[in-house]
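Subject: Phosphate transport system permease protein PstA structure
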Amino acid sequence: MTTTTKGSATEMPGDGPPPSQKSLLTGSLPRYAAPALLAATAALAAGVLLAFGALGIAQFAVFTVIAYAVVISIASRVVENRRQATDRLVTTIVYACFGLAMVPLVSLLWTVLSEGLARLDLYFLTVSMNGVTPSMDAGGVYHAIVGTIAITGLAAVISIPIGLLTSIYLVEYGQGRLKQAITFFVDVMTGIPSIVAGLFVVALWMMIFGPGKTNGAAGAIALSVLMIPVVVRSCEEMLRLVPNELREASYALGVPKWLTVVKVVLPTAIAGITTGVMLALARVIGETAPLILTAGSSAVAINWNLFNGQMMSLPVFIYSQVRMGGAINYERAWAAALALIVVVMLLFFLARLVSRFFAPNLSR
């Protein structure tokens, strides 16, 4: 066994890291340090704000976060090292930003639940406003649910094939100026205002059928104008995530390109494609302005015919109830808003089921 002698000190192999690395080995805060410091700073914040008579939820949260960030950084710098202190500070900032982003969402959900549950019941979901005056404590939202499902369903039937095929062309076949032009116009259409889509369809409908022809089909076409670019962009990104090795393996077996897309690329990306389609549906299901112009805003009866007569939808129903004013109409609007949120949640639940049962089994 060899030894290295430096002065009077003798170092044996395996005795530990050299002195240049020992500075990296420092202490660490115990696991309970972070929650304990958070509780202490929260108590300190509450005491200070009570002393100044300015205790409020916003003030308490801001004071607690700032005090905790300072205290945890100092404690980590003293006990651990500068890198750990920076890591804890950045972690605190990230959690604070996440909490700040969740505030409007939680507030929105809480407000809709507290205001909408008072009227949302089986009666409200199974009757229409046919024969109900604004001052009557009766009527429901069934006709608006029917209109929302029918209009959004037709919009999906129009948009999903067009958007998916366009994304397949851009990823698998497109090249040159045509691909650049399609990508440019898709990006432009992504930011188009919804009212412009409604005006476009109104002008188109007037040219074909004459003025005053509002129906659910026109509303579905207006929504499809908004939905197609979202489907294209989301599906394009999902198709690009499919590894090229899978395509090359399929080509090596002699499988033609179109069959590779159908049997390999699409099944691999089905989960992401489904999520993108659901995001596009959620994007258009709450649109109000184009539906007011194209599907009408005065329908009170149940109408399953997309091509005959006006058709009510949940967003337009909410708008019309708020516009009329009054406590009863406001209750109907809140209950309809809650019903719209439930419909969107059911769509996302359906998308999860589709992703689960149709995605390829990668464990084999």
